[in-house]
Structure formats: structure tokens, C-alpha cells
Amino acid sequence: MEQRRYAQWLKEHAEFTLMAALLVFGAVARAQIQYSISEEQKDGVAVGNIAKDLGIDHRTLKERGFRIVSTSGESMFSVNQNDGVLYVNGKIDREGICERSTPCLINLKIALENPLEIHYVTVEILDINDHAPSFPESEMHLEIGESALPGARFQLEAARDSDSGSNSLHHYKLSHNDNFRLEVKDRGEDGKIPILILQKPLDRELTRNINLQLTALDGGKPAKSGTMDIMIKVIDINDNVPVFTKDVYSVMLSENAPIGTIVIQVNATDLDEGPNGEIVYSFGKSVNSKVRKLFDINTITGEITVEGPLDYEDKDSYEIDIQASDKGTVPHTTDKSIMIKIIDINDNKPEIEVTSFSKAIPEDSRPGTTVALISVSDLDSGLNGKVSCSLEDDMHFKLIPSSQHSTFSLVSTSPLDRETKFQYDITLVAKDAGQPSLSSVKTITVLISDVNDNSPEFSSSPYAFYVMENNVPGKLLLSVSASDKDSNENAIISYQIWRENTEENKYTSFININSENGEIYALKSFDFETVKTFQFHVLATDSGSPSLSSNVTVNVFILDQNDNVPVILYPVSANGSAEGVEEIPRNVNAGHLVTKVRAYDADIGYNGWLLFSLQEVSEHSLFGLDRYTGQIRTLRSFTETDEAQHKLLILVKDNGNVSLSATATVIVKVVEPKEAFAASDVKNAVKDEEENDVTFYLIITLGSVSVLFVISIIVLIVMQCSKSTDYSSKYLQDTNYDGTLCHSIQYRSGDKRYMLVGPRMSIGSTIAPGSNRNTLVIPDRRRRDSGEVSQ
């Protein structure tokens, strides 16, 4: 179209220019010539001889500038200045130049000079049938609903043919089909429009797609044609209901099926298509919420899956209504029921229930006493619910089945002793008969309550305590302890001293005991010199009903303290002072016994071990004193220069840590031998009398010590017999007397051997640590283990 406008513009412009030239130069337009030529001619084909047709000498053409000055198709033609022939310049396509215009004319202006001439040449392009009818698209798609009524018209795309005249589009032809026919509407210049008319109703379920072919033919000889395929898709309407593929849906499902397990898949079909044929599955409206929690349905695939835990014991079958619906505007729905049967598996452990339970039973209960009633159950069915019950360990108990189903009695089988075992953890095992079997375990605790069947027991029997004399009255003296294997009130112990009106128990009035803790207090101080040992009995009684009791013998040994000063027995004057006069002949030799100082100490051990020393003496070289015996002897013979009277001050002290002492004064008179014999007779008589008194006191003292020692030995023997232990090797006696009233008692405690000694003490003895300063330990490599109690 643009090319055509451009050619018209060139034509008008050339005419205007030519007219102007004619006016200026007086040029003359001579003639107009017309030629005809078919399209599609080759390059260089001669159209006509312009010079010859115009009568112009061809020899003058070049001189006169023979040329084409303006044309609508100058580029398509050229002139030869030598012979004046018009030639085709390139291939000419009529449809490209004139499109659908008829006739197709090309105007040329030929110019010559001297004189100036303008000639008009018209070239008509003749059409040939070189184009076949064609459609814009090779295929055309139509969608026609199966609900369309006969007579419905569907306009098709028209074909186009570039040729003109008889070579242009002539008519259409439609392939055979029962449902459609073709009608053509002629719109003149706009061409012939094909129209498809429905003449028979469509059924998509019979025919979903219809393929037609439309052919367009021109009037050429031979005729040319073009085709277009018409693809008709029959659009569905929702005229079919969904149909399930099975009449009955039934399935069996284990109760332990995990969540997500596919139970069954339902399937329904719909002959419609598109949304009308798309199936949506759902539960029926009558399905309750509990079932919806257990099962789920896939709305697209129809798969029913497990959504929650299934329990055969809750429900053994489910009948579920489902629906299949299409997606039509007005959807069609079909209902169906699914039967799901739950298969029982052994998934429940037996349950143990203690229906009646005695948490505590007395330890004196007889065998066969019922402790508890046990019932077992299992929610499973069949063999899975059949339960047996047993004890993991007999432990003095057993299960006895009762007449009622799955009920047992737990009874004792042997005597019980709380002191041996106060608690029994009884494990009950319940086991079903399923495969595999499941079991449950339950532990019940049976407490054995106490019965007062045990007497208090003392930690030691008999007790032996060593108490220092001069103890503080009211202060803790010693303590005893007893225990009771029973519990609570049956184990609460009270203490008391067993007081008998006998001579042996007279000391019990001087002691008291704390009834709650067994601490024993002395109500008075003890004096070793008065009493060295005594015993009493302590009674321990529990608080049970009736109460039980036991007693123990307590032996108390009084330990000596240095609380007695040495007593001078000789010399003693008439007024009671320790002073005496001794006369000796002057002619005595060295070593002569002048006299002997006698003394004793009521204490024992170191406290009673006396040593003698010269405190004052007029002549040290003349007299000597035996440290241990108190004998005074001459160290040399008397000389004429020695004085006739000598005063000796004798110090007697014991060996206590804080030693006590006494002094005696002896005046020695040196006389001539005759005087000495006379005086000796008188003194001998006096001395014999004095010595008789001293001997009497010594006999009494030794007798008392001996009696006390014998009593101690008897007590020790009794203790030995009561404990069935050899005490004879522990308490050994050894009394000695060498003139100073010394005595000794040996005894053993544990791995140490003790000796209570007087002045004659063993040279190898040492002070025993912790012996309260009056007990010696004798080295003894023959020590042996002993369970004796020492304090």
C-alpha cells in the first residue's frame, strides 16, 4: 500500500515538473504508447521499441538524451539509447506491485531534448495463476459444547489468493462429516467467508474430538488450492455421575498399624471430562469426629490412611461412609460404605492390681497369713488376654490362686523375724500367653512390724572399771550401755541398779544411775585404803508390753592415789614424836647396825614405796643409811676425837608424783663398852616391849591386806567363771614384806601387765602411761590378745 502511494506521488511530481519545463522552454508532448507484458518475466526481456513506435530516428536518440525521466516503476524498466527498445529490469511480480488492483498499469515518461519532447508509455502487467489460495493458519481449533443446538453457526477464517480475476479464490470445499455442513458468504472485496453450521447434536462421551479439512480453490486452469485443518474439541457438560469401581469395599487392619498406613484405596470414575470428570473423595456427613481422628482420606487419590492410634479393645470394626463427587458447576455425588475390621494383636501388657493389702504384719504371724489379694487382667482377647501370675523370688511368700478368675492370695510360708529382715520387696510378675508374650512387673513392700521378743543386750558382760580414789561426788563415774534388737518402744531401754540387802552390795547405796543413758554417778568419794574393789548389778529393761530385761555385773576397782603420808613406826618416843635415842659402844667396828627406822605408807605402788635418806647428820663419815631398808650402820670405827653424841635426822618419803614425807630423829650416844652393856640390858627390855607392839600392828596390817587380796582373787575368779574367760593369768598376787610394810599386787589388762608394789619393787619396772601414777607396767614379751575390759 505504501509503495502504491509512493508511485502516485512520483507520477504527480513528474507531471508538475514536465509542465513547468514545457512552459519555460516551449517543449511539446507528442504521443502516448501502451504495452502489455505478463508478470514473472525474466530480466532483460524486451517490452517494445519506443523509438520505432514513436517514429524517431534511433540514430539521434543518444544525442537527444533519450531517457526515462519519471515513472511509477522506473526501477523495473530501462531504455536502450542505441535502438530505443524498452527492457524489463529485474523480475516483475504483479501481486507485489498492484496487490489486488485490476488492471495493473505502470506509467513511464520518456524525455528527448533538442527539441524537448515528452512521451507517455503505459505498461500493463498481466496476471498469471502463480499463487494458490492460502489460509492464515494451517490449523484452526474450535471448542464446541456438547450442549450446542443444531443450526449453531461458527465462522471460519477465510483463505486469501494474491492472484486476480479468474485466478483468484473461487470456492471452498469441506471434508465429509455428519455433524457439520459448510456455508460460504461472499463479501465482495473482503472475499468469501466460510461458515461452519452444526446440523446434528454432539455427544462428548461418544466423540470427544472431530477433525475436518477445509479446502479453498481458485479459478485458474489448472486450479490451485489451499487447505486448513479444523480441529473441533467437544466441550463436556456435567451429565454423568461418578461410579465406584467396586460394589463392596472391605479390609482387615492390625490395631498396631502405624500412623500413615494405607488402609485401602477407593476408585471412582466419571465419563465427563475436565472439572466435570475430576473426582473428589471425602467422608460422608454421618462420619463422626472420633472416626475422623482415626482415619483420613486423600481427596485426590482416594487413599484412606491411619490418622490416629487404633485399639482393638476400644472398637473392633468401623463402617465408614465415603463420597465421590465431581467438580461440575452442579456436582454429582455417589456414596459408598467401607468396612474396616480391626485385628487384635498382643499389644497390651497384663495389669496387676493389689485389691487388698496389709502394709505391715507382725513378726510373730503364723505361716499362711494372708498379706494381700492380687488380681490380674489383660485388655487383649483370646490367648493374648490369658494371664498367669508368679513371684520373682519366693522370699517366705507364695501366691495361691482363688476361685475367682485371675485372682490370687499372697500368703506367708515361713516364720518371720523382723530383726533378721524388717522389709520384703515382693516382685509380682504377670505374663500373658500371646506370641510374643508380654509381661508386667509390680513390686509391693511388706513391712514386718516389731514384737517385743528380744531382751536388752549389754555391750560387755561383765563390766570392769578402774576408778581413781578420792573421786568427786556427783561426777560421772562410769557408764554402761545396752541395746535392743527390737524397734520403737520395744527398744527403749531404762537402766536401774539392782539393790540387794546383802553385805556384798552395801556399796550400791553410794552410787546412782541415769535411767535413760546408763551413766553411773558416785554419791561419795572412795578410799582405796578402805575399799579396793566392789561389784554391783545393773538391770536394763525395755518398754515393751510385756517388758523384757537383762542384767550385767559391774566390777569396780579402786585405784590408789598418793593421799597418805608415811607413818614412822620406829623410833617413837613416849610423847608420840618420832624421836629415839640409841647407845652404842665406842669399840664397834664399821658396818655395825645402830638401829633401823621403820615406817609404812597406806598407799600402794609408787605411792607406798618408801625411801629413806639422811637429812641431817653431825658426822657424814661416821654413819650410813640404807635407802631402802632404813638401817643405820656405822661406816667406820670410832676414834677418841669423835664426839660422844650424834643427832641424825631421817627423811622418809614415798614415790608419788607429789611425794609425801615424814621425818624421824635418832640420837646416837657413844658410850664405853661397860656402860653400853648395862644400858643395853635396860634398852633391850624396853625395846622388846616396843617391838612387841610394833609386831602387833604389823600383823594387823598384813592381815588386812591379805584379806583384801583374797577377796580380790575371789572376785576375779567369779568374773572369770561368769565370762568363761581365763582371768587367772590377768590378776596375779605377790605380797612381800621386808620390814617396811610393803606389799604388791600384779594384774593384766589387755596387752599390759600391771603391778601394784610396796617398797620392795622390781628393779626393771617402769611407770605405765595412763596408770594414774600408782601403777607399774612389767615388761612382758609373752603378751597375748585379750578381750577384757579395762578402764
Please describe the topology of this protein.
Elements: H1 2-25, E1 28-38, E2 46-49, H2 50-54, E3 67-71, E4 77-79, E5 85-88, H3 94-98, E6 104-112, E7 117-126, E8 139-145, E9 153-155, E10 169-174, E11 180-186, E12 192-198, E13 209-218, E14 225-235, E15 243-244, E16 249-254, E17 262-265, E18 268-269, E19 279-283, H4 289-294, E20 295-297, E21 303-306, E22 317-326, E23 333-343, E24 351-357, E25 360-362, E26 370-377, E27 387-391, E28 397-401, E29 407-412, E30 423-432, E31 439-449, E32 457-458, E33 463-468, E34 476-479, E35 482-483, E36 493-498, E37 511-513, E38 519-522, E39 533-542, E40 549-559, E41 567-570, E42 579-585, E43 593-596, E44 598-600, E45 611-617, E46 623-625, E47 631-634, E48 645-653, E49 661-671, H5 673-723, E50 731-733, E51 745-749, E52 752-756, E53 766-767, E54 776-777
Q: Can you describe what's shown?
A:
- The chain has 791 residues and is mainly β.
- β51 (745-749) and β52 form a beta hairpin.
- The longest helix is centred in the last third of the chain and has 51 residues, at 673-723.
- The radius of gyration is 78 Å and the shape is elongated.
- Residues 1-7, 13-29 and 724-791 have low confidence and may be disordered.
